[in-house]
Every structure is written in C-alpha cells, then in structure tokens.
Specification:
There is one protein chain. The protein is α/β, with parallel strands linked by helices. The protein has a domain of 179 residues: Ribonuclease Inhibitor (Leucine-rich repeat, LRR (right-handed beta-alpha superhelix), Alpha-Beta Horseshoe), CATH 3.80.10. Helices cover 37% and strands 12% of the residues. The strands form 4 sheets. It has a 17-stranded mixed beta sheet, with no helix packed on it. The longest helix is centred in the middle third of the chain and has 31 residues. The relative contact order is 0.05. Pfam families: LRR_8, Pannexin_like.
Length: 803
C-alpha cells in the first residue's frame, strides 16, 4: 500500500505556524487525512485486485434439444439445473459439468479489460482517484497562504517576532508592573484562596478550586523570579524587539494580502465542496455490482454479450457514502469559516480588552493584515496577543528605555560629568540621551540641570530630592512634568532656559513658575510672536527680572510689557529681522539693562531715552550710521555702559562729552576715522574699545582718562601714540596690535599695573627695555613676535618668563 506520509509535503508547514491555525483549520486537516486514507485505500485496491470479472452470455437457438433448452433457461434464470432421476437401471450419479465457452485465459483478460473500459461507468472506475485528487486540492487550499511568497514571508516574520515577544522577560515585568497591586494585597488574596481551599474537600471541592484559580485574572499572577531587574542583555534584546515590532507594523498594515489570500482559499474550498456534493450525490448510484457488457468482439472471442461482476463495487459504494459524509462535514466547517470571516471586520483589531485587563491604556488598535493575524492568534490562544500588545505600547517602551538608561547612567558616572557653568552653579549636562535617567535625582548636590536634544523627557516627582536645584536648561527637548514636580519647580526654580526648533517644544508649564527670576527663550518664531506663542501668561511670572529672547520678532510682545514693572534686564537678539515697533520700551521704567542685537536698527530708538533707570545699553550688529541722538543720553544719569559695536558708524558726535557717567564705551567694528577730543571729557571711562576702525590719530586728550583700565585700538591705521596715553597709570590692558606703529615709547614703563599688552602686527624693530618696569606684565600677557621679544634684555625676558 502507498503510505499516507508520502503526501505530507502537500500540507506540511513549519511547526511554529500552528499558532495561525484556528480550530476549524485543524479539524479540516484531520478530515483531509481521513479522506486521503479513503482515496489511498481505494487506489491500492484498484492496483492490487482484479477490477472486473466477465463471463459471456450464450444465446441458444429455438430448435435445440429440450435438455439444452432447460440448461440455457436455468443459466438464464440463475436456477439450478434439473437433476436426472435415479432409476434402478441407472444407479450411478451423473457428473455435473458447466457451460463450455472454449475461451482461454488471455481471452478472458481481454474481455475483462474491454468491458472495464467500455461498459463500467467512469465514476465507478475513477472514484478513488477523484477522492485522492479532491483531497489533495483541499490540502493545498488549506495551506497555500503558508507557501505563497507574498504571504509566507510576512507570516514567518510575524511568528518569529511573536515568539520572542511571548518569551521576553520584559513582557512578564511589564504586565506585573501594571497590575496595580502591592505585595500586601497579593498576600491577602493568597490567604483568602488558601482559606477557601481548606473549606472545600473531596473531588467537588478540588474542581471548584481549579475553576476559581482559572478565573483569576492573569495580571494578578506575577512570576517574581522574572519580575526583577532585567540585565543589560535582556534590556537590549527587548529594546530591539520594540524596533522590530514598529517596523513590522508599518510594513504589514500597508496591505491585506493575507486576509485576501485566506478568504480566497476558503471560498475555493466551499466551491469545491459544492461541486463534489453535487456530482457525487448524482453518480454514487452508478457504482453497481453487476454490469452488462455489450462489445463487438465476436470475431475474436465468439461472443458479443457479457455479464460482468465489479468486484469492488460494494466496497466503493460504502466508501463513497463515507466520503460524502466527510466532505459534507468539511464543507459545513468551511461555511462556518466564511461566516466568521464576514461576520465582523477582521481588518481591524482592538486591544480594548487588553487595555482594560492590563491597565496599559496606550496600546493602539491595528488594521489590515496585522489585525487579521491577531484575530487568528486569538483563535489559538488569546494570551499571545495580550503579551504581544506590550510591545505596541509606547508607555511600555518608555519604561524599558528608562530601565536601560538607569542601568547605563549610574550615579557615579553622572557625577563625573558635573561642571561649573557661567552662573557659577554646579551643572550636569546631558546631551542626546534616549531619556532622563532616574539616577539624576540621586545627585542631591546638583544646582543646574542641562538637557539637550532629548526627546520625550518626563520630569518625575522625585526631582523634589534635588534641594539645591535652581537652574534648568532645555535645549530641543519635549518635556512633560509630573504635578508634584511642577509644584517643586514653582517654589525652587530661579533660571529657565529653553532652546527650541518647534514652538510645540515650549513647555506650557513654564508660565506658572512664580518664583522664576530669569527666562531665556531661543528659537525660530514667526514675525508676530504674540500670535504664535502663548506669552500672555508671562504676567504670572511675578519674580521675573531677566528676559532673553533670541528669535525673529518684529515687535516687542505686549506680554513682555506686562512684566515691565519688575523686569530689570531684557535682551532681544533678532537674527537680522527688523525690529520696528519698540515704543513699549517706555513702560519698562525699572529696566537697567537693554540689549537690542542684530535688530536692523538704523537709528537709536527714541523709546530708549525714556528709560531713566537704564545702566547698560547694547546695540550690537545693527545698521547704525549716525548717532546724533546720542545727546539725549544725557538724561540717563545712570547710564554707565554703552556698546555701539559692529555697526556702520562713521563719526562720533561732540555731544558724547555730555555722557559724563559713562564707564564702559565700545565703538569697535565700525567705520570711524577721526576721534573727537571731546570723547575724552567722559573722564569716568574705565573701558574704551575703538578696535577695527579706520582711526589714524589718537588725540593727546586721552591722558585725561585717569580711570582708564582697558584701551584697545587694534586693527586701525594709527602711526604713533601720544605720550599722554602713559599718564593713564591704572591701565591694565593695552591693545595696539595691527597698526602702523614703528616706535614704542619708553614711557610705557610708567604703566605699573599693565598685565596685558598686544603689539603684534606693527613695524617695531625693537622693544624698549622699560617694559621690565611693568612688573605685572608676564610673557603670557605680552602678544608680540618671537623675534621682537628677543630684542629685550635677557634679564627682562627672564623676569617676564618667571611665574
């Protein structure tokens, strides 16, 4: 016989694929095996046994003897021949002989074959082969979507990911963490279960106990051995699984080839079932035990009519009815499958029950082939989809990232990154991490926290452990904050810096920091900032003293004016965007420092002259050409610092002499050619920067500046320095490099406090040895060509090189 295992290749699939075979597919597989056995059994009988046995029919003429006629009649009527009567004269029995046909064995074989081909109905001949073919078609249809390249690749990938997700230690940990129960509650439940077990005895009690255990939600059953901390390898594997699930979901949700393939193969099986039932029911009666055969082979055998016996007709008849029963059950199962396929949309899958059971609320619903495979998985075991859902949750992924982050960034490693920032605070900079490590909040000495290019930052309530935290910097970070953490920041945070590319990165909670003193906003905004950023809430920042905006605003927002009563310093760095509406400055009566940098200003804003408390003004990188309005600064009695650098100013008006309160004045990077002597009537000046201009002559009135400590004329066209410059005996920094000087006066030795001297880039041939009298000047503070330095006496050189 032919073993059934030879047909295994028609239905063979990977063992892992069984999770995508619901009960009806398993049931129809067994039915297919039963039908296959019927076909194989029938085919085996066809091959091993005689198919048909035929005998000729003899027709006697009417004039034959009566005895022959009686014999013929007896043969025709299948009645026994009459026996001769015994008589005393004939006591011996007569020998019985059958009809003589005078046919040999080959002729019988020929007759059998001819009658089998000509007289036997085709259904009776080919029934086992039909059963075999139909069954193979059923088996191919049932497993075609496992073999088709476009679908099998997706299935293999899905099964691979599903198995890893099911076995991942992170799955167990995530489900245990969201159970919402502490150990005490679990112990109470365990005690209650034990008491209920002791009150029930016997087989009935055991049954109730087992049922009650099954009814306990799985989220309450936690394997404590796997719910502990994951090691680094397990964490990395779980992280890789999240990435695989994301990519697989994007790929599979694009189409519905798996759903369409399964529907088509099911429809094909139903059609096949209907065809089989239709023609088998009509033809099963054609399987008969006796068959009349009329073939014209008289010239070869001497006979034309034959009576044949189909030796397997009885068995085939029984097998056909049995086969029809199997096919009917198979077809009804396929009809149920169609009902299941079209009863509800299988292209959408909701994890609502998983969200309710596990408490993970952000598990997304899926669609198309992804949804269909999950529906199939549920028919096998819903536990698979429940554990798989953990890797679709963004919350679960964030928890895993947080766990891996905590393992990577230990407190000791974080302490190694501590540094002192510009505000003289102990700062921890964290750049391009996947999140904010919880271990940060164990560094209680931290004063400033700087987060840069970190997405989805969640500031937890544990930030309250940082008692010394006063400064927070968020550079290109999207931040959410716990309510308890916000309460802590409202009370303790003094400085907040936010650098953003997208306005959505501006934290909405920053407007409620009532004790905030300094706010720095750096990012690209539209020209009308007040319409795009909710700065109206700045009025709630009652303690705000410093506001820094680096953006592209065209006017000062009204929200800034709302904090004008207590604002002391405002800086607007506008990246070249023209600032046209600045009359609101008049309302900032308490402003002491103002920076309007790169605002494309052509004149000094008149609103500035109303700021009577102003002490420092910086108009860097504008388009100032004339500063005649400088005369109005005389009303600003407290103005001590004026920076008009990086502009296009061509001259300094004489009105500058009225600014007698100035202590720091910068005209660097302009186009000034002549210095007015009136400039040096501002005798309180301690810092004067005239570098990078076209100045050729320094007036001797510079000696009036007895408070001068810093003087720079670097990169000008000065050919000589007045001796009066060396009367400024408090001078500490002198920059005269990149000019046309040829001689350095020996009087430079009068500058006893000089600690920095730049003379590089001139035409000096020798340096005066009187430089040795400048006791504070060391080699590191002397910027000069090495060859020129060698012209100094050796003792002077050694003095400067000495520490």
């Amino acid at each position: 016989m032919i073993p059934v295992t030879e047909f295994r290749q028609f239905s063979e699939q990977q063992p892992a694929f069984r999770v995508l075979k619901p009960w009806w597919d398993v049931f129809t597989d067994y039915l297919s095996v039963a039908m296959l056995m019927i076909g194989v059994f029938g085919c085996t009988l066809q091959v091993m046994q005689d198919k048909i046995i035929c005998l000729p029919k003899r027709v006697q003429p009417a004039q034959n003897h009566s005895s022959v006629s009686n014999v013929s009649q007896a043969v025709a009527s299948n009645s026994p021949l009459p026996l001769p009567k015994l008589s005393p004269t004939n006591p011996a029995p007569v020998e019985m002989k059958g009809l003589k046909t005078d046919l040999d064995l080959q002729q019988y074989s020929f007759i059998n074959q001819m009658c089998y081909e000509r007289a036997l109905h085709w259904y009776a001949k080919y029934f086992p082969y039909l059963v075999l073919i139909h069954t193979l078609v059923f088996m191919l249809c049932s497993n075609f979507w496992f073999k088709f390249p476009g679908s099998s690749s997706k299935i293999e990938h899905f099964i691979s990911i599903l198995g890893k997700c099911f076995d991942s230690p992170w799955t167990t940990r995530a489900l245990s963490e969201v159970s919402g129960e502490d150990s005490e509650e679990k112990d109470n439940r365990k005690n209650n279960m034990n008491r209920s077990n002791t009150t029930q005895s016997g087989p009935e009690g055991s049954l109730v106990n087992s049922q009650s255990l099954k009814s306990i939600p799985e989220k309450f059953v936690v394997d404590k051995s796997t719910a502990g901390a994951l090691d680094k390898k397990e964490g990395e594997q779980a992280k890789a699984l999240f990435e695989k699930v994301k990519k697989f979901r994007l790929h599979v949700e694009e189409g519905d080839i798996l759903y369409a393939m399964y529907v088509r193969q099911t429809v094909l099986k139903v059609i096949k079932f209907l065809i089989i039932i239709a023609y088998n029911s009509a033809l099963v009666s054609k399987v008969q035990f006796t068959v009349d055969c009329n073939v014209d082979i008289q010239d070869m055998t001497g006979y034309k009519n034959f009576s044949c016996n189909h030796t397997m007709a009885h068995l085939f008849s029984k097998l056909s009815y049995c086969y029809l029963c199997f096919v009917s059950i198979y077809g009804l199962t396929c009809l149920y499958t169609l009902y299941w396929l079209f009863y509800r949309s299988l292209r959408e899958y909701s994890f609502e029950y998983v969200r309710q059971e596990t408490g993970i609320d952000d598990i997304p619903d899926v669609k198309n082939d992804f949804a269909f495979m999950l529906h199939m998985i549920d028919q096998y075991d819903p536990l698979y989809s429940k554990r798989f859902a953990v890797f679709l949750s963004e919350v679960s992924e964030n928890k895993l990232k947080q766990l891996n982050l905590n393992n990577e960034w230990t407190p000791d490693k974080l302490r190694q990154k501590l540094q002192t920032n510009a505000h003289n605070r102990l700062e921890l900079p964290l750049i391009m991490l996947s999140g904010l490590p919880d271990t940060v909040f164990e560094i209680t000495e931290l004063q400033s926290l700087k987060l840069e290019i970190i997405k989805n930052v969640m500031i937890p309530a544990t930030i309250a452990q940082l008692d010394n935290l006063q400064e927070l910097s968020l550079h290109q970070c999207s931040v959410k904050i716990h309510s308890a953490a916000l309460s802590f920041l409202k009370e303790n945070l003094k400085v907040l810096s936010v650098k953003f590319d997208d306005m959505r990165e501006l934290p909405p909670w920053m407007y409620g920091l009532r004790n905030l003193e300094e706010l720095y906003l750096v990012g690209s905004l539209s020209h009308d900032i007040s319409k795009n950023v909710t700065l109206e809430s700045l009025r709630d920042l009652k303690s705000l003293k410093i506001l820094f905006i680096k953006s592209n605003v065209s006017k000062i927002p009204q929200a800034v004016v709302d904090v004008a009563s207590h604002l002391q310093k405002m800086c607007i760095h506008n990246d070249g965007t023209k600032l046209v509406m600045i009359n609101n400055l008049k309302k900032m009566t308490n402003l002491t420092e103002l920076e309007l940098v790169h605002c494309d200003l052509e004149r000094i804003p008149h609103a500035v002259f109303s700021l009577l408390s102003l002490q420092e003004l910086d108009l860097k990188e504008n388009n100032l050409k004339s500063i005649e309005e400088i005369v109005s600064f005389q009303h600003l009695r407290k103005l001590t610092v004026l920076k008009l650098w990086h502009n296009s100013i061509t001259y300094i008006p004489e009105h500058i002499k009225k600014l007698t309160s100035l202590e720091r004045l910068s005209f660097s990077h302009n186009k000034i050619e002549v210095l007015p002597s009136h400039l040096f009537l501002c005798n309180k000046i301690r810092y004067l920067d005239l570098s990078y201009n076209d100045i050729r002559f320094i007036p001797p009135e510079v000696g009036v500046l007895q408070s001068l400590q810093y003087f720079s004329i670097t990169c000008n066209k000065v050919e000589s320095l007045p001796d009066e410059l060396y009367f400024c005996k408090k001078l500490k920094t002198l920059k005269i490099g990149k000019n046309s000087l040829s001689v350095l006066s020996p009087k430079i030795g009068n500058l006893l406090f000089l600690s920095y001297l730049d003379v590089k880039g001139n035409h000096f041939e020798i340096l005066p040895p009187e430089l040795g009298d400048c006791r504070a000047l060391k080699r590191a503070g002397l910027v000069v060509e090495d060859t020129l330095f060698e012209t100094l006496p050796s003792d002077v050189r050694e003095q400067m090189k000495a520490e």
